[in-house]
């Protein structure tokens, strides 16, 4: 609903993914959250909170698998009576893929969306999405 | 000390007190966040649906002091303020005061109804949209709370978690002030803090 407006984090693939046909592969997605802000983790401890979620929207030649998130921080904020499961600062997500045996060799791009919801110590901001681009090479 | 001299001292003290603290018989209330009358702009009108599907317009509240709260169910700071607003609604509703919550969840009522039931919110909630946010200057941070005076003018804007006492003091001060001139802009909207005028979105005009 909301216009995307300001973003409170960036996300990009650390390097080009090189994968062999018929094999599994994983890519590191570097996420950097602006100082003073936090985002809910992938497993927020309140039903009303919106989790950090990475989805691949354009498959390319790769089959998207699970996404591994780092261990969340449990942080206490003035506005919450219990510590919240959040991420702050820099973190890496590991995105797993499978390369079909019949995949075409050569380069390609996977497009993904990272949805997050950020807050600072006294305000929250509407959920936003950043695009994640992953370049790959199938060998 | 003669009775005359004693009386003069008492009178001088009283006048000095008046100069410093004011002579109004009404208890002085400090509400530093309230804009002076001359700096207040008319609140833009809107037409949004409440939980029963009934259209609610801000102009319906003309003559009342309104606490207009933009919030969402995922907003932790909003959840701190909501019980305060419930208190204010209970305490001041018979004095011409109302709280109106504008929920900004993307999922609309699917997200809001369970929350409202869980918390037992005792004031009216409507579901807002981008147009509503734009009318009020493009709301980004939640909570954003507007205090609207009896004349329908925006007397204060609070972005982010604010103290209960600051709201309380401002509400009490606004309730002491009778309505006068101006009012909610119907059909045309001026963003809070902005000088330009913004046309009311067509769907709202159509709904009026």
Care to describe what's here?
The complex is a heterodimer of chains A (139) and B (208). In chain A, 0% of the residues lie in helices and 53% in strands. Chain A has 139 residues and is mainly beta. Chain A has one domain (9-125): Sandwich (Immunoglobulin-like). In chain A, the strands form 3 sheets. In chain A, strands 1-3-9-6 form a 4-stranded antiparallel sheet, with no helix packed on it. Chain A has a 4-stranded mixed sheet with strand order 2-12-10-5, with no helix packed on it. The model of chain A has no long low-confidence stretch (mean pLDDT 93). Chain B is an alpha/beta fold and 208 residues long. Chain B has 2 domains: 1-28, no CATH class; 31-207, Glutaredoxin. Chain B has helices at residues 3-21, 76-92, 109-119, 130-135, 164-176, 202-207; strands at 47-49, 55-57, 65-71, 97-103, 124-127, 144-148, 154-159, 188-189, 198-199.
Task: Note the topology.
The complex is a heterodimer of chains A (139) and B (208).
Chain A: E1 9-13, E2 17-19, E3 24-33, E4 38-40, E5 53-58, E6 63-68, E7 73-75, E8 84-87, E9 90-98, E10 106-116, E11 118-119, E12 128-138
Parallel strand pairs in A: 2-12
Antiparallel strand pairs in A: 1-3, 3-9, 4-8, 4-11, 5-10, 6-9, 7-8, 10-12
Chain B: H1 3-21, E1 47-49, E2 55-57, E3 65-71, H2 76-92, E4 97-103, H3 109-119, E5 124-127, H4 130-135, E6 144-148, E7 154-159, H5 164-176, E8 188-189, E9 198-199, H6 202-207
Parallel strand pairs in B: 3-4, 4-5
Antiparallel strand pairs in B: 1-2, 3-6, 6-7, 8-9
List keywords for this structure.
heterodimer, A: 139 residues, mainly beta, Immunoglobulin-like, four-stranded antiparallel β-sheet, four-stranded mixed β-sheet, 12 strands, 53% strand, elongated, B: 208 residues, alpha/beta, Glutaredoxin, 2 domains, five-stranded mixed β-sheet, two-stranded antiparallel ribbon, 6 helices, 9 strands, 19% strand, disordered C terminus
């Amino acid at each position: 609903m909301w216009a995307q407006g300001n973003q409170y984090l960036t996300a990009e693939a650390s390097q080009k993914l090189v994968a062999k046909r018929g094999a599994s592969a994983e890519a590191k997605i570097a996420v950097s959250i602006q100082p003073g802000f936090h985002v809910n983790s992938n497993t927020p401890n309140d039903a009303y909170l919106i989790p950090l979620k990475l989805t691949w929207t354009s498959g390319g030649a790769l089959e998207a698998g699970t996404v591994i998130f780092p261990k969340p921080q449990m942080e206490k904020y003035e506005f919450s009576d219990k510590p919240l499961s959040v991420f702050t600062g820099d973190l890496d997500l590991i995105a797993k893929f499978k390369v079909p045996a019949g995949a075409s060799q050569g380069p390609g791009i996977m497009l993904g969306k990272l949805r997050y919801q950020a807050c600072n110590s006294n305000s929250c901001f509407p959920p936003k999405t950043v695009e994640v681009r992953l370049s790959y090479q199938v060998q | 000390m003669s009775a005359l001299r004693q009386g003069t001292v008492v009178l001088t003290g009283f006048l000095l007190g008046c100069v410093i603290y004011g002579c109004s018989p009404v208890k002085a209330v400090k509400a530093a966040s309230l804009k002076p009358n001359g700096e207040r702009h008319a609140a833009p009108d809107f037409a949004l649906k409440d939980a029963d599907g009934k259209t609610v317009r801000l102009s319906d509240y003309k003559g009342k002091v309104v606490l207009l709260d933009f919030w969402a169910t995922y907003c932790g700071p909003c959840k701190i303020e909501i019980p305060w607003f419930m208190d204010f609604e209970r305490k001041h509703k018979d004095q011409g005061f109302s709280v109106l919550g504008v929920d900004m969840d993307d999922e609309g009522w699917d997200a809001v109804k369970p929350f409202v039931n869980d918390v037992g919110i005792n004031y009216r909630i409507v579901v807002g949209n981008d147009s509503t946010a734009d009318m009020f200057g493009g709301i980004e941070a939640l909570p954003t709370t507007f205090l609207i005076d009896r004349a329908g003018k925006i007397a204060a804007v609070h972005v982010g978690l604010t103290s209960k006492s600051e709201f309380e003091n401002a509400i009490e001060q606004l309730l002491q002030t009778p309505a006068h001139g101006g009012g909610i802009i119907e059909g045309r909207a001026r963003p809070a803090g902005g000088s330009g005028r913004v046309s009311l979105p067509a769907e709202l005009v159509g709904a009026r």
